[in-house]
Amino acid sequence: MGYNDVYQAWKADPEGFWMEQAKAIDWVEAPKQALYDRGDHIYEWFADAKVNTCWNAVDRHVENGRGEQTAIIYDSPITHTKREISYVELRNRVANLAGALRAKGVEKGDRVIIYMPMIPEALEAMLACARLGAVHSVVFGGFASNELAVRIDDAKPKAIIAASCGMEPGRVIHYKPLLDGAIDLAKHKPDFCVIFQREQEVAKLIEGRDYNWHGFQFGVEPAECVPVEGNHPAYILYTSGTTGQPKGVIRPTAGHLVALNWTMKNLYNVDPGDVFWAASDVGWVVGHSYITYGPLVHGNTTIVFEGKPVGTPDAGTFWRVISEHKVKSFFTAPTAFRAVKREDPKGEFVKKYDLSCLKAVYLAGERADPDTIVWAQDQLKVPVIDHWWQTETGWCIAGNPLGIEELPTKLGSPAKPMPGYDIQILDEAGHPMPKGELGAIAVKLPLPPGTLPGLWNAEARFKKSYLEHFPGYYETGDAGMIDDDGYVYIMARTDDVINVAGHRLSTGGMEEVLASHPDVAECAVIGVTDQLKGQLPLGFLCLSSGVNRPHDEIVKECVKLVRDKIGPVAAFKLACVVDRLPKTRSGKILRATMVKIADSEEFKLPATIDDPAILDEIREALQTLGYAKG
Ligand code: COA
Ligand code: AMP
């Protein structure tokens, strides 16, 4: 069957299609019904089933004779460490950790926050929660205390599992003070914390609250897998919306298992036993789906890579890891390839390694620019697949399913909709747009298994953000088009979310932080084009009247404020002071126009602009930062 046959088979009988895929999962009680319509455009999949995620990701492989196969390869060029964990070891380690968590009172439905770097223990913590039916929420290690505190207050975790530190090139990230700071800031207090002490830093534990990862497992009974309902939340993952309050995307257990397992063969074309590597971070959705759950559920070997594409130690790291661990399918972000290409445009490092094991490369997280794709194709001589997805969906919306059929590549397009997704381009009023015309990208409801059924603690926000604008559709927040051959093109966001080095960030969130500076009366943050990171945030600051301190001092304080409040990962380093912001007569800040000026693109003067002269001031300010030069 080719792509069209599979897509049509899904379209003809969506529930039958997913019931068939569900057979690949080990159920405690198999689903009798696929889809549940809960009314008001809310749907759930496999709600009547009973299942355990950890069983499917770990134990069943041991039962089925894969116990000695390597489950996790840890490769850390930053700490010069390599380690392998077999499925049977993983089962034992996870069962012990789960047993210790249970002994301290963690039960099905309790939330557990995980704040860990790229070490195997991060995956073990996730799996231990899944084993108990506890709902984990992994917080990216590059986030500051304040961001962690916001997530603690929203998820209200019974426990927090953290490492003593993370490692960035040339510096140790002290996680423990960040964690302590977050718990101080948060209103909700966890019952206890579990700290994994790394060799690079031994953190001070707070007696009665903090337990040592090893010590607290001593003498406990290992835990068995706890069956949960198909619609039980597997995890909550916070992602950026338009405000500083992140959205807690809920991942439903059964659909997650069925969908991810389907993608491993059909999209990524790997068989059980093959090595699959996603060079992302467990703090992001790519890490959840394709470092932890997808490969393990499917019986693959997954790689936990603690390093960067360049500088750890050089631009050949990716190729070294691929060749050394026999990676068959490799997943990274375009920005990582741009970083490698910048240091090694001619691929001198590529030539040093035997990459015959590598069969395909997958890119996601941001738009894959044609130059980067062509460079990767030339260097690696394998299909380079752009595929589009979001934290909300948890897996690919549009892509090129190599395990079914290799569709011809069209540069700039992540190819075609995956089964489960009926993608439509709509105008502002919700009418379908003609082929080739730009509009809002929406997906006809219901979304497929594994996608979000809601936001944690925020039903009204869920409906408002995704369901209300186009009734009967899921609003993706992306704009784009579909061509005559059915290829999808993702062009821009329709909201204030920007994408910095494959990381999704809220300009609204940064504005809230800047506005808290005592000298800032008003501000705006936009995403300007960057050759390496895709976009970079740039802030405009209007000062309160009477403030006459040097502007560069205020700018420096603002940069530090964003770093302290959101984290270094926001990469907020560009800001300037302006007298006024360009607005419409109704007071809406013209961010899109400022982006066009910064990027030296042509733009139409908005008809509703209050005072066009302000745009010249904005251009001058941007020029001082090296933008708007064209
Ligand atoms: N913990 C603490 N700090 C972190 C961190 C973490 N887990 N990850 C990044 N940071 C810090 C970095 O040290 C850097 O700090 P600095 O401002 O002091 O230099 C800042 O956050 C920005 O980090 P990063 O985005 O990694 O930029 P970089 O300039 O260090 O490296 C790239 C550039 C392109 C190599 C890097 O962005 C990259 O590897 N991108 C790929 C992203 C990716 O895989 N995304 C997954 C989505 S699919
Ligand atoms: P995240 O939720 O962090 O995965 O970010 C999702 C957003 O990243 C999408 O809504 C897009 O804006 C962007 N994105 C992800 N993958 C792609 C892609 N292949 N092409 C274009 N944009 C992408």
TrEMBL record:
This is Propionate-CoA ligase PrpE. Residues 64-446 form the AMP-dependent synthetase/ligase domain. Signal peptide: none annotated. The keyword Magnesium does not apply. InterPro entries: ACAS_N (IPR032387), AMP-bd_C (IPR025110), AMP-bd_C_sf (IPR045851), AMP-binding_CS (IPR020845), AMP-dep_synth/lig_dom (IPR000873), ANL_N_sf (IPR042099). Belongs to the ATP-dependent AMP-binding enzyme family. Keywords: Ligase. Residues 3-57 form the Acetyl-coenzyme A synthetase N-terminal domain. The keyword Glycoprotein does not apply. GO terms for molecular function: ligase activity. Residues 510-588 form the AMP-binding enzyme C-terminal domain.
